[in-house]
TrEMBL record:
<dbReference type="InterPro" id="IPR017871">
    <property type="entry name" value="ABC_transporter-like_CS"/>
</dbReference>
<comment type="similarity">
    <text>Belongs to the ABC transporter superfamily.</text>
</comment>
<dbReference type="Pfam" id="PF00005">
    <property type="entry name" value="ABC_tran"/>
</dbReference>
<dbReference type="InterPro" id="IPR003439">
    <property type="entry name" value="ABC_transporter-like_ATP-bd"/>
</dbReference>
<keyword id="KW-0813">Transport</keyword>
<protein>
    <submittedName>
        <fullName>ABC transporter ATP-binding protein</fullName>
    </submittedName>
</protein>
<keyword id="KW-0067">ATP-binding</keyword>
<dbReference type="InterPro" id="IPR003593">
    <property type="entry name" value="AAA+_ATPase"/>
</dbReference>
<keyword id="KW-0547">Nucleotide-binding</keyword>
<dbReference type="InterPro" id="IPR027417">
    <property type="entry name" value="P-loop_NTPase"/>
</dbReference>
<feature type="domain" description="ABC transporter">
    <location>
        <begin position="5"/>
        <end position="232"/>
    </location>
</feature>
<dbReference type="GO" id="GO:0005524">
    <property type="term" value="F:ATP binding"/>
</dbReference>
Length: 311
């Protein structure tokens, strides 16, 4: 199967620092792939290599099956990007701004209307970009990335700085893009909650290395749920939980009962609650914790980032 994006042992140095270290990523077609990592983990560098803006020092990067190093222009035609700097002419309309890029790309005139409709800006096409909200500008950036119908989109922090409503709009648009525009989306972000709501797949970079990758649902299913208990006497509560076959950890203010991967925490929480109450423990709170992207992320990215590890 031809992947939308594939890298093999991709490496990039800055001076003697290896900031992308043998990264082999696989982004299936029509995925929304959340690309995660701490500041300095190497995400932007990887994206810039994929976009043909930076040369790799080793390995390969393929976009829609095309090698970025050996066929840069053909690869560039298959990938659209929304990066941090938008660079719109604020005195021109959204439509006029898009038309400038359309001409550079040599696309037909109707492309502008197509992408404006995809990001739901058609009603505001003739307004000055200077009068757009930040959310509308981000959507215009997304429209520009969609010009020429590239099969792959790379978006760097697309919800950065947006208000909750703008974030919700962008999330919805992103979720719908693979179905409506037939694209694959590579989404770089620090916001785990945002990624969790839109991504079908994730890849996590730590110190330049890809430390986890896969389908988000399957990765989360591999994690165990737990139950967090607050009670008047944690030592006694721990004893009761152990007697009932739970493995427990105690923190300063709570007890955490660990469950086997795949176990539904709800019946276990009910059983534990009954046992604690029967033993006379006063339970103040009992909270089942479901596997989350945040827990996946913290399981693999505790190590300090490359930048911080280098003197
Ligand atoms: N042009 C450059 N010259 C030297 N070092 C660079 C250059 N670009 C990036 N770096 C360094 O490479 C490392 C990885 O940077 P990169 O921007 O790829 O990380 P990132 O994961 O995108 O971080 P952030 O989330 O903060 O954008 C950092 O230590 C950064 O300082």
């Amino acid at each position: 199967m031809c992947l939308a994006i594939q890298t093999q042992d991709l490496c990039r140095r800055f001076g003697d620092r290896l900031v992308v270290d043998q990264v082999s990523m696989r982004v299936p077609r029509h995925a929304i792939y959340g690309f995660l990592g701490r500041n300095g983990a190497g995400k932007t560098t990887t994206l810039r290599i994929l976009l043909g803006l930076l040369r790799a020092d080793g390995g390969r990067a393929l976009v829609d099956g095309i090698d970025v190093a050996t066929d840069r222009l053909a690869a560039a035609r298959r990938i659209g990007a929304l990066l941090e700097a938008q660079g719109f002419y604020v005195n021109l309309s959204g439509e006029a701004n898009l038309d400038l890029t359309r001409r550079l790309l040599g696309c037909p005139t109707r492309e502008v209307a197509r992408v404006l409709a995809l990001v739901e800006l058609d009603a505001h096409a003739r307004r000055r970009v200077g009068d757009y909200s930040l959310g509308m500008r981000q959507r215009l950036g997304l429209a520009r990335a969609l010009l020429g119908a590239p099969p792959v989109l790379v978006l760097d922090e697309p919800t950065n700085g947006l208000d909750p409503e703008g974030m919700a709009d962008m999330r919805r648009l992103l979720r719908e893009l693979p179905g409506r525009a037939g694209v694959t989306v590579l989404l770089s972000s620090h916001l785990l909650g945002e990624i969790e709501q839109v991504a079908t797949h994730v890849g996590i970079l730590s110190k330049g290395r890809l430390v986890m990758e896969g389908e988000l649902g399957a990765l989360k299913a591999s994690l165990a749920a737990d139950i967090r208990i607050e009670a008047d006497d944690l030592a006694r509560a721990a004893g009761v939980a152990r007697t009932h076959g739970f493995e427990v950890d105690t923190t300063n203010d709570a007890l955490v009962a660990r469950l086997a991967p795949g176990a539904d925490p709800r019946p276990h929480a009910a059983a534990l609650n009954r046992a604690l109450c029967a033993a006379g423990v006063a339970v103040h709170a009992l909270q089942p914790g479901l596997p989350s992207l945040e827990r996946l992320y913290s399981a693999v990215s505790h190590a300090p980032a490359a930048m911080e590890a280098t003197p």
